[in-house]
Amino acid sequence: MKCSQGGNFSNGELKRFGNIELSPSAGVLNYGQGLFEGLKAYRKEDDSILLFRPEENALRMRMGAERMCMQSPTVDQFVEAVKATVLANKRWVPPSGKGSLYIRPLLMGSGAVLGLAPSPEYTFIIYVSPVGNYFKEGLAPINLVIEHELHRATPGGTGSVKTIGNYAAVLKAQSAAKAKGYSDVLYLDCVHKKYLEEVSSCNIFVVKGNVISTPAIKGTILPGITRKSIIDVARSLGFQVEERLVAVDELLEADEVFCTGTAVVISPVGSVTYLGKRIAYGNGVGVVSQQLYSVLTRLQMGLIEDKLNWTV
Ligand code: PMP
């Protein structure tokens, strides 16, 4: 689908996966006007296909487009395009319980622009790929390291939108962490350097007794759709959920720590290394993470009643 600056998106068309042509002076290549989303389609036992909260991805892309001075499809255009793409690729949705179809909507400034300015044209593309279950043999804990020098996002920046440059910005710290044997990086706020923000592509939660805390969304953290869903699921199960500043010291007292995101749903944290000190969490797979994972994945796969109408 294409749209000129100030105009509306045209109707989309289905095309075979392949390379696309772009002007060397396209806005996305020169000035980083690019946004993406990630969501999944699941096959139910009766062969019907379920999408999980696609309108939330549409709204997040619209919020991002506003910040990045881009045109974006309406929520209806986005959701209808996702549905049409999934339907056309139905045979690629893995059998029930064996994985999902990962859906990647992209929005880019595709028009040519030489001096710094918003692109005169925008292109919206969706591609898909089947993916297996992230955890094939039960939940497995990840080991995080806290980064001190490099930051993922700054106040007033673009940390709260899913723009491509945010991901380039984490590659250096993430590669260094992986080379040292860690699974990923946990970022702190760049002002006080003491409050938890998020992991390279997941949100973070800290469990202490019946209280589950997660950093509040204040412009430097991506408002994860899994995060939002887990907060509601946890509350419905009787947990007290707090969205607030979560100090790094709270990791020392926590019973469990877990991350949330579309790819992993929930990823239990086995350890966090902070200033060279390793804080470990039991066997790494806490009961709360296990319980929340079980409820949310069964809901996404249509195995339990969807009282909140999250699946379409
Ligand atoms: N934070 C970042 C930086 C991410 O890239 C993602 C993945 N989209 C998340 C959090 C989790 O968001 P969601 O639950 O919507 O996948």
UniProtKB/TrEMBL annotation:
Cofactor(s), names only, from the UniProt record: pyridoxal 5'-phosphate
Annotated keywords: Amino-acid biosynthesis, Aminotransferase, Branched-chain amino acid biosynthesis, Pyridoxal phosphate, Transferase
EC primary class: transferase
Known catalytic reactions: L-leucine + 2-oxoglutarate = 4-methyl-2-oxopentanoate + L-glutamate; L-isoleucine + 2-oxoglutarate = (S)-3-methyl-2-oxopentanoate + L-glutamate; L-valine + 2-oxoglutarate = 3-methyl-2-oxobutanoate + L-glutamate
Residue numbers of N6-(pyridoxal phosphate)lysine PTMs: 162
EC assignment: 2.6.1.42
Any single Gene Ontology cellular-component annotation: chloroplast
RNA-binding recorded as keyword: no
Superkingdom of origin: Eukaryota
Keyword Transferase assigned: yes
GO MF annotation terms: L-isoleucine-2-oxoglutarate transaminase activity; L-leucine-2-oxoglutarate transaminase activity; L-valine-2-oxoglutarate transaminase activity
Biological process, per Gene Ontology: amino acid biosynthetic process; branched-chain amino acid biosynthetic process
Similarity comment: Belongs to the class-IV pyridoxal-phosphate-dependent aminotransferase family.
Name this polypeptide is given: Branched-chain-amino-acid aminotransferase
Record organism: Cucumis melo
Residues represented out of the complete protein: 92 to 403 of 406
